[in-house]
Amino acid sequence: MSATSSVWRSYAQIWRSILQDKGAVLLLFVASVIYSVFYPLPYQLERVQQIPIAVVDLDQSPPSRQLIQLLRAVPELDVIGVTGDYTQLQEALWRGDIMGAVLVPHGFERALLTGQAAHLQVSSHAGYLLASSKMMAAVSRTSLTMGVAVTQVRLQSQGVSPLQVAASLQPIVLHQRAYYNPHEGYGHYVAPAVMVLILQQTLLMVVTLI
Question: pLDDT: is 163 or 70 the higher one?
Answer without folding.
Answer: 70
